[in-house]
Amino acid sequence: MSTRKPLGLAALLAAAVLAATVGPVRAEFPDKPITLIIPWAAGGSTDQAARMLAKAAEAHLGQPVVVENKPGGSTNIGMAELARAKPDGYTIGTLSSTSYLLAAQGRQVPFDPIGAFSYVSYFGDNLIGITVLSKSRWTTLADLLAEGKASPGKVKYGTAGVATTQHLTTEALQRASGARFVHIPQQGSAASVPALLGEHVDFLTETSVWGPFVKDGQVRLLAVATPKRAAAYPDVPTLNELGFTSLRSVQAIIAPAGVPEPVRARLEGAFRKALADATFRQTMERLSMEVVDMPGAEVKALVESQYALAKDLVASFGKKQ
Amino acid sequence: MIESLQQIGYGLALALQPANLLYAFVGSLLGTLVGVLPGLGPVTTIAVLLPVTYQVGDPLGAVIMLASIYYGAMYGGSTTSILLKVPGEAASVITCIDGYEMAKQGRAGPALAIAAIGSFVAGTVSVVALSLVGPVFARYALSFGPPEYFALAVCGLALSATLSLGSPVRGLVMVAAGIVLGLIGIDTVSGRERFTFGILELSDGIEMVPMLMGLFGLGEILVNLEEKGAFKLVSDRIGRLMPSREDWRRSAGAIGRGSLFGFLIGLIPGGGAILGALVSYTVEKRISKHPEEFGRGAIAGVAGPESANNAAASASFIPLLTLGLPSNAVTAVLFAGLLIQNVQPGPLMMTEHRDVFWGVISSMYVGNVMLLILNLPLVGLWAQLLRVPFWILGPAILTVAIFGTFSLRNSWFDVGVLMASGAVGYLFRKASLDAGPLIMAFILANILDTSLRQSLLMGDGHPAIFVTRPICATILAVALAVVTVQLVAWLRRRPGLIRDEAT
């Protein structure tokens, strides 16, 4: 140990001299690679989009952004790890609505679903739509809701699972319209489409997995749940237009709570600038995700209001059951 | 038909391009290698190679390589099963039963040969079937809804009871344990956690791959370590490779039936190579003129399942490519591989990515020929791999298994599952308990439970839905028949049962 001391001292001295000549001792954030935790398996839609976004943000940060997939527990495992990470800005992650919806549903999570994070930026909304088979008797959402009111419990619908954005959006729709449908949860979005095509459910509220089937004419898209009409389906009305509330399918960049504001702002700047990247936009378009730019503060407010809405919805359908 | 032939011609022209031939060869070689090495399977390998394919740039080349790893592993897996009684990869687990017995009797050569030939025949037949009738068959898959899945799961459990090697009681205990383990995690229908004891990592259930690797791979390694020997290579020499005329007579039918069942099961979303092999083994045992030989080195017990797992592997490309529906862990990883290459699997793939669709299917013809050459004359070479002293191979496999497990989800918990399953697998071996039925029940438990409740929701709570749907009713009738036949047989045997138990 003692033999090392002089060397350490020398290094300190050198550093001090360097600092004196160059400027502030602490290098500007970031001075080392940043880890981006994606709480989903590699290859999924969030993973593909976030990887492209991270690549684009590297240019604005001047440091590599290393993606780490931590799937499991419907994002809970990755989110728990992010919540535990040191709030220095070198560990950030992606937020999907799935995470706080689980908590809203009453699932125990080892972190505060809203307060454990600071909010960097938004990057998009998954396109969620209500779809039926083209040969079905429903040509508009109103038709479907009318039947749901006339014969409650007869019409069955599928989503990726309980307490997903898809499920809660459909619950909100039932509450507002008075229609009654039976939810048949599927094991993930990929399993939903065959359930509709095989006529095991009557309609689907799902992310854009129905895209290719709408294109080839087998499936009819009745409404979309995005705030604005989807670029790829300009003729399809939004739920908001039709007078219903819909939940956002949030895709955002977050960090652990307590990240110093200058660092958070630096990340926000880089990730919002990255939204303009052509490859990222192409990826989003291919995945039928809408690119949305939003400052961190607004993301936080949005997530808080969505969380409250979801809790309210869960309480009301909990009573119904 | 003519149109299909034109498409295959077009695909072959692509598959025979030098670069694509090279990708198919590299994939076949890698597939055989990971198939031979226990603990390493196609899922891990393809998952590990996904980032590499990103660099390939050409979607067709990348997908050809990934696909050939998958069916290559189906070839290689049998070698280890026969020589070591360790499944080189999961779908070869059935081959262990009779293949290893044959090897013990000095007939490793014919066992290896018939496995490779059966794989080749089944692989080729199912690729032909895939290219001719695949798109049509895909439509039938859609009529499989929750009630049909439920019926299939019931049927599978009924079948897995007959597979159980020891006494029926031991088999039933393992099935029960498998169901309980399979129910751990979030319940699809209510969204509630079950049997997780608040452990976050258990909320998706126990991860299958580390559990499989542990129960079969690590358990075996531990037993081997205890015996301080080399890997228990049963015969120093593989011996005469070519099967005898009698072997051929007994295998030909098994290969044909295995190809057929494997192909049909591979088409069903959720069906896969393991299930195909399992069904084939059960059928062969049932219809054989020499059922007493099963478990004691019946060549049909090697030929059938090995053909079936290859046919199922090829057939599972149909739901993957035409429906965008991964039917098992390997095709799920391949699905990700396609997406990385910007190719969306689904009903539009045949038109939007015609080159990839037909190129990959045609490359399977080429790949199967390469694999026959790699596995038949060169089988001795692969067996040499297993002759590496155990003190090198054991730890090496252990390391690869740990890395592979960790790489799947970057999860230390999964590594823990691997270790724990390894310990349990060791104890099972010591207690002569067969982990096969446990794994089957583990996989089927989730389907059984979820599809039962989805069906009841679909049928407004009335179980009538199970008998009013023709496909479902038929499968359930088959299951009932299987159980009845077994029950009758068991009741007849019953006086002798206690004596059997004692031996």
TrEMBL record, chain A:
Pfam families, per database record: TctC
Name this polypeptide is given: Tripartite tricarboxylate transporter substrate binding protein
Top-level taxonomic group: Bacteria
Xref: InterPro entries: BUG, Bug_dom1
The family this protein is said to belong to: Belongs to the UPF0065 (bug) family.
Keywords annotated in UniProt: Signal
The keyword Signal belongs to this UniProt entry's keyword annotation: yes
Signal peptide: 1-27
